[in-house]
């Protein structure tokens, strides 16, 4: 039997008794909800001291650039943060992106894509695709780009790559998804039922709020954006999924990985026993260490044949 750390039990209790109730009653004051999310996340992760964060813009879209002294300007991770399509990037996102920049010697770009409900679908995915297109138009090699994201950002990772393919753009080297939300459907079966009482963070009420904010009634999203698991995965880049065994979104990753495997995509999935939603982001968890190490190993494996011995440093 896998023995969870005492820290993971404490963090799970915090998520279940503080964060989950907050998300169960989002109300109409979205600004207050966003401020609260930022505040509550402060103690869940730490930012590497060696990493710098700078503001920038790609095609008018605000972005954060994260890099260290050893980061290459040529190797890029486009990171699409989660938050139910309504919340901004918070401390764990910066911590995880900082770790990626430090451990993979890459530059991480995190777009501040437009958020629902003020900017419902397709604003978010349009911004993410525009950021990727900007990189290509400015001579970034797609073989040196990886697109990654967590939760809603995992959805945006999948739909951005599918959108790039539909637009005839070259695809990135790989895709990394942490607890992605890939199915917009009624929560009446599968892991939504079996894990409802075990889920530490996301209630069905919160998931419904996120869905209705992102895709309000009357919107007619494209097939691939509404149901990415029904898209053709053939020819997509290598994928890695990370998900906790007690998440209501467990089946999203399991089904996506199974589909990718059946359609010839290089795919692996890590299912961590008892871990909460997007646990690799929470570096206070000892259990996040092996997940982060696996993420770094995956990214480096995609670049090992094209990365020079001494990468070109940022200027």
What is this structure, in a nutshell?
The protein is of the alpha/beta class and 315 residues long.
Give the helices and strands as they follow along the chain: HHEEEHEHEHEHHHEHEH
User: Can you tell me the overall shape?
Assistant: globular
Oligomer: single chain
- Percent of residues in helices comes to 25-40%
The major pleated sheet works out as:
8 strands, mixed
Radius of gyration: 18 Å
Distance between the termini: 49 Å
List low-pLDDT spans.
310-315
The structure class reads: alpha/beta
Please give a structural write-up.
Residues 77-279 form the Alpha/beta hydrolase fold-3 domain. The active site is at residue 151. Belongs to the 'GDXG' lipolytic enzyme family. It comes from Pseudomonas pohangensis. With 315 residues, the protein is an alpha/beta fold. The protein has a single domain, classed as Alpha/Beta hydrolase fold, catalytic domain (Rossmann fold). It has ten helices and eight strands. The protein has helices at residues 6-24, 30-41, 91-104, 123-137, 152-166, 191-194, 204-214, 223-226, 250-262, 288-303, and strands spanning 52-58, 61-67, 76-80, 107-111, 145-150, 174-178, 239-244, 267-272. Strand 3 (76-80), helix 3 (91-104) and strand 4 (107-111) form a beta-alpha-beta unit. Helix 3 packs across helix 10 (288-303). It starts with 5 loop residues before the first helix and ends in a 12-residue tail after the last helix.
